[in-house]
Design goal:
The chain has 231 residues and is α+β, with helices and mostly antiparallel strands. It is built from seven helices and eight strands, in the order αααβααβββββααββ. About 10% of the residues have low confidence.
């Protein structure tokens, strides 16, 4: 190929000034649309709809909480409408006994969200999902009104927590944290991603050590949290 032909080919590949401006404008527009979409999805977030249990589900949850809290009248009252205080009712003397004691704690995903919904603020700002050995929590966090552009809006915060029982010990490990749909680097929150907190911080006499010693079994399966306590 001679020099003149090469120059002709190169000249044909050059973009005019108008074309360059057009391409830059399209790139800016695409970026702006992407930012608007991201903000609508994650910054201008709407609050969650509280979980409302059916009457039969509410009775089941009330029975569980009655057993857990030892409240004599909780089974006949709705958790969404707190019952009058029972402190005015005199207690009857009763001998302590652990015979036939139930050391199991079982809660479904809907029951957990219904318990959260008993607090009007939490109901709108926190939602929990339960998969096998994984608790996923979504939070809608208000942004300070003094912040430019996004002040007064809502930001979505998600995190996943593994809960299981392996080799005779509970496993509690952070799977990850996302802010506004963007996963945050583990280094930003202590490099503890996928680290079993019970082993990492379970020093003798510490919180995680005592927690581990009191749990016989723990798992999440089929949307249910199951915990068996030791004697």
């Amino acid at each position: 190929m001679n020099t003149e032909t090469t120059q002709v080919v190169i000249s044909r590949r050059k973009f005019s000034g108008k074309q360059v401006v057009l391409f830059v404008g399209l790139a800016v527009l695409a970026t702006a649309l992407a930012v608007v979409w991201w903000m609508n999805q994650y910054v201008y977030a709407t609050m969650f709809e509280p979980t409302r249990l059916a009457e039969s589900e509410q009775h089941v949850l009330n029975d569980k909480m009655t057993h857990l809290l030892q409240s004599t009248d909780a089974a006949s009252s709705s958790l969404s409408e707190p019952s009058p205080s029972t402190t005015d009712t005199p207690l009857k003397p009763m001998s302590y006994s652990e015979n036939d004691a139930n050391r199991q704690i079982q809660l479904t995903e809907r029951e957990v969200n219904a318990l959260i919904a008993t607090d009007s603020y939490m109901a709108r700002h926190v939602a929990v999902d339960m998969a096998d050995d994984l608790v996923s929590v979504q939070m809608v966090v208000p942004i300070n009104h003094e912040m430019p552009i996004v002040g007064g809006k809502m930001l979505k915060l998600n995190f996943g927590l593994e809960l299981s029982y392996t080799n005779g010990k509970p496993v509690v490990a952070m799977r990850g944290i996302s802010l506004g749909g963007i996963p945050l680097p583990s280094a930003w929150w202590g490099d503890i991603k996928n680290t079993n907190l019970v082993e990492e911080f379970g020093g003798s006499g510490g919180f995680w050590d005592q927690f581990s010693k009191g749990v016989e079994d723990m798992k999440i399966q089929d949307g249910q949290l199951y915990v068996m306590l030791k004697e």
